[in-house]
Amino acid sequence: MIGSIAYDTSPMRVWLPLSGDAATVIYEGSIVTSVKANYDFTQDGILLLGAAVGVNDTTADRPPLGIVTGFNTYPGNEAYSGGRQTMTAVASASLHAATTQYLSGMSEHTSAHDGTPKAQVALIGPSTYIKMPIYNAAWGTAITVGTVSTASTTGAGFTSTACCDVAGVAGLSTVYCRSGANKGTYRVTSDTSTTTKTVYDYFRYDIANGDTFVGVPFRLGSCKFQLDATSTFLDASATPATNHWSGDIVELNLSTAGEEYAIFKFNTLCFAAVRA
What we know:
The protein is an all-beta fold. Helix content is 0%, strand content 35%. It is built from no helices and 20 strands. Strand 11 and strand 12 (157-160) form a beta hairpin. The two termini are 33 Å apart.
């Protein structure tokens, strides 16, 4: 599963050139921006949005633009990521006499003689809901499963082997019961630990030794979260305490190992120009 638009009130797709600022692999499903850090426009096209630097990326100050849905690579020259099961393209400044061929005339603002590598970008805004996988630090690495070692007869919490990949922020993290009497139950946590977990709303049933749980550093509703460097998944190993994007998560699914995902939208502030 790659990043994709779950639903939107006004979807629109445009063809935009890949930036020649650096030799960067861009994936189908990557969230991209059109500016470098601090509203620097000294490049031709789109760049990876990546992880936020500061609160709502106020240090780097890059607004989200859209999600890549395809490339204009000439048939026979396509690049495919087997690990991510998606197409890729490399942004490069070395276009003069380049041997890789790209289709031209992909939009009204493109000459028929322009062989520039481009991406089709589905534009996003404050009303766009995005579906993205959740991984632990690297694409395809499932979040950690913890096994309870100290039970609870009140449902107020438990102690386990690490069930979270980072110490979360109280009130902004979630645990999910994978096995045991509370299987299928989500709770927001009030602790800042990866092993000793407490919750605001107690679990309905007793928690027993051997029960298993997983946790992520974000929650349903308004929250803080972090993307990976390629902006293709929500990073469960990144604390949102200092660096984060903010927005609303409307669906959180942690039920199946390796298939965890969230549906979210960015906060309006993330799109504001020079929001530092």
